[in-house]
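Thread: Newbie trying to understand structure tokens

Hi all, I'm a second-year student working on a class project, and my supervisor (Dr. K.) asked me to get a predicted structure for one chain before our next meeting. I've only ever worked with sequences, so writing a 3D structure as a token string is new to me. If someone could post the tokens and maybe explain what I'm looking at, I'd be very grateful. Here's the chain:
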Amino acid sequence: MNEIIQAMKERRSVRKFKPETPDRATVDQIIEAGLYAASGRGTQTPIIVKVTRKDFIEKLTKDNCKIGGWQEGFDPFYGAPVILIVLAAKDCPTAVYDGSLVMGNLMLAAHALGLGSCWIHRAKEEFETPDYQAFLKSLGVEGEFIGIGHCALGYAAAPLPEAPERKPNRVFYAE
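---
Reply by user tm_fold:
Sure, no problem. This is what the structure looks like when written as tokens:
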């Protein structure tokens, strides 16, 4: 079987990460794969913010819990040492689709390079706040962006589960 298709079939969300941070070269390869995602009209509006600062991951964790309605102490990022935040230009009509393709590329690239990943939501709500908009400005990000998702990234702390059977009656042909 083609190795890309095999990776698509084997990749699973990781919900428990080892504390070791993957090396920068590996993470940069994953980011590069995200930047090669398809985008409507080739606009390439999505951006990626790599976060490894523990204090900022703690802030994301606290705010994500608050938005998600979880109790304090829950870690919606499952101990991931790297968070890749995907955002897309707010004025782009295909922003959500384009950013979602970036997220897919990030997760597949992570799997192909031996890392685990998990798509974590609530980036939209976070980046609607003045605090997170100021954070983007502090990084030199110009313009208005919508949060698409967080890609929690790191070494899986447990083996990946087997893929469940695919549900029937999901493909229809008009030949």
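A couple of things are worth pointing out once you decode it. The helical segments are 3-10, 24-35, 54-68, 95-112, 123-126, 130-138. Residues 95-112 form the longest helix (18 residues). Feel free to ask follow-ups in this thread.
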